[in-house]
User: Fold this.
Amino acid sequence: MKNKFYYLFMLLSVIVVGQTFGQQAATITGKIVDSKTKEAIIGAAISIKGTSGGANTNVNGEFSFKTTKKPPFTVLVTFVGYKRQEIEVFEIEPLNIKLVESKGQRLDEVIVVGYGTQKRSDITGSIASVPLEIKSQPVVSVERLLQGSIAGAIVTQTSGQPGGGVSVQIRGNNSITAGSDPLYVIDGFPINNDYSLNDAGVTDGSKINPLSTLNTADIESIDVLKDASATAIYGSRGANGVVIITTKNGTKGKSSINYDAYYGVQEVIRTIPLLNAGEWWALRKDAAKNSGKTATLPSVSGYTLDTSGVGTDWQAAAFRKASIQSHSISILSGSDKTRLSVSGNYLKQDGILQNTDFVRYSGRFALDHDYSKNFKITSSLVTSYTKSSVAPSAIVGNLLLTPPSLPVYRADGSFVVLSPFESALQNPINSLYNQLNETKTNRILGNVAGELTLVEGLKLKVLFGIDILDNKQNRYLPSTTAEGQALSGLATVGSVFTTNWLNENTLSYEKALGQKGKLNAIVGFTAQQSKTEGTVAEAAGFATDAFGYNNLGTGITNRTPRSYANDWALASYLGRVNYSYDDRYLLTLTLRADGSSKFGDGNKWGYFPSAAFGWNISNEKFWQQSNTINQLKFRLSAGSTGNQSIPAYQSLSQLAYFRYNFSNTTVSGYAPNTVPNSNLGWEKTFQVDAGFDVGLFNNRISLVADYYYKKTTDLLLTRTVPGTSGLSDFYNGQASTIYQNIGAVSNKGYEIYINSHNVDIKGFKWNSTLVYSKNINEILSLGDGVSQIIPSISSPSIAKVGYPVGSFIVYQTDGVIQSGETPLTPQSNKSPGGQKYKDINGDGVITQAGDRVVIANQPDFTAGLTNTFSYKGFDLSIFFQANVGGKIYNANRANLELGTGYTNATRDLLNRWTPSNTNTDVKAAFQDPAVTISDRFIEDATYYRLKNISFGYNFPAKFLKKTHLKNLRLYISAQNAATWTKYTGFDPEVSLNGQSLINKGVDSGVYPNSKSYQAGLSVSF
Assistant:
């Protein structure tokens, strides 16, 4: 394989060198200006049709380049936001060109694709870009900018924890137990957003998103590659889509200092209505009576229990109005040979839960230098430091369940530590304030590349990059909290350090073939390796809490320290050919070969080909130009991509530490705890995509529509090893598992993107953008003899053949048991007032095996609508986002409807069944603490949201000239300003997805999402 690429390198070089000798060059010069303002246009691209090369205009709008082509020929002129021009040249003389602003789709806009760029009109794959008005939103992590702006992207903030997790699926879930998030390519460096690399395993609660280390103010563009033609160049890493992020850099002939800042306030979107102290005490008495008991109050000391008043509103005590602020400054500069960008950012986000926050300091340096006409160097370095105080995982559940009769504080002002009732819940306010639960991360992401033009059209590029993640976590449970009281304090510290290096070597070639043909090809070799080391140490039994986690040696209770290390490597060969004929027929062929250390000896290499065809129908001679349909393009692609997102060493037998007893003496030893699988190989996804790009009414309306079908086979699926094997997971105390290539999943759907320039009259502009997508996910196979996987008997989740990933298995409720009725229930309490269930198999009893049903869970469609208005410096942007259909299992509600009197309850229990209130669907109160997983707690996940509204003012040029400013904009905005939903939990979005695909859609104590209001400014000097 390696020799084939070497020979191709040499062949391309020989062809080009041979064709360049003996040709004489002429110089083409001129100037390009705006047709209305007559101002020079900087950076416009000019070239000769059918040839490579060309130039960009300088700060004066002037250009100059050499060509060996003799007149007559056609000159092409393009610039983002302006109509493309074709100028016939019959003799060599200076050209004065006036460009006209374009109101339609920017067909000549340059889009970043894998290992290069392309004009939008030349693209054969399915690629979408985040619009400017969305990209300017104030968000903490870049994934949020994809939500509602990219058709086919399902984006969910899985936790409202500041800096917390975001789940992204492009065109559905391809996998079940392997990674499902897209590949992120930041300035050419590909990374998987692996949360384990930012988690030393010490903090308890939501994991911090590694991509939150990136300052969104530094981002120039975000392009999303969706189909196989676009993603196959990334081979094994492109199955879940690719998000290409390009950061800002200087521009030739321009210099500026920019300052962007905003300050805002956040608050919880909604709270859950619960019983007050008097109502709860009545419930407790009712539950005891129905269970043949008498309600009593436990004896307490130092405080009193409220049984008649309002009591404690634990949600009000925990939630707050929290501030968020961001300050970014950047210096951009550029000369004819050098472009420079330097920036810094400070972000501080306080959480809506007390004593939680996220702080980020980041800096970025980018330098591009044209060392000579034929050689240039590009470099980028991003550094960041983040620190987060994390809410412990039990906090939200405790806020809802802790009885309102219990006060927050004792009479002496100290915290109540533990609920005296049967639930024995920790005081959540005490835990929030006194637990130390923090995570800190240093990150360095940088690369440097050299590009050498060997001969005209042939370029060699070599890139070296590195990504370093250093995470440190500290946790201390003082003796003043319920969690640390029994241990006299517990301190834990941990760190995880990851280095990830990359080397890419590519050779690209551009050549005009005759008068109408254009060829663009790239071949290359890449290598990447990641190494991770982690340690955890802890101690308990401290004489004082004063030292926290800083003095482990003073703990009198020894705890076993832990350490680990792992690494993986990837080697790849890649090649792509783009051919276009007369701007009518487009062809793209791609092949990538990946070798991964994660797989078995005979299966390390995977091969991922793709092919795509594009037809610019509107460029055909038979096409009748009209003001109705100005542009029509058809795209068709097919190809294969792969997935290797599993932990390292899964194909090998691993050893675990055990203690053995010989002759009453304990000795140390090791034994296998996993089964080797030398046949473990690639998870593969085959995808077909068909699409149309349409321009209507003089390109005032642009429409992009795609239909796709994906089938993923050889799933990287975990299987439990039978206990009879003698193997076990020593550290987790669970049965051992093994990854195997079994099963299949399909995704099919369609996407629509519409951009409309509605009004442009006397300075007033109104533009609209609509994205719509529908995806149908289905599990096709789980292996021979397996029809379903249930991760836990206490979980409502199931993976079942014929259903989408993330479906539920539950009992079906059938009202409340009335007096004289047959009590159909799996519960031991079968009294009137209990919950009744449907007898699915008709055997007269309710059993787990015979009477549970599977309920599918996936959205009907997702959509986003953006409207932007501008008039005389004022601008207004309104962004709506919708998720229609889908389900959520509300585990919080299941616990709140138990009605035991041991914990607090939802206000729905005020309408509970009693002998005098039988016409209700709310069961009676009983001291039966077991939750029965049923469809009663499955709710509609549909929501419509005013995601962002922003109103701003750009000061006019006359004012700016007096202040020597280049730009000044003031704005106010709101995020998640309004939500319309029937879901009864905190928020339907934050609960839709978790890190496990099987368990997605379960809402159980998740840190709630927030709405926020900001005021900000942008100023340039």
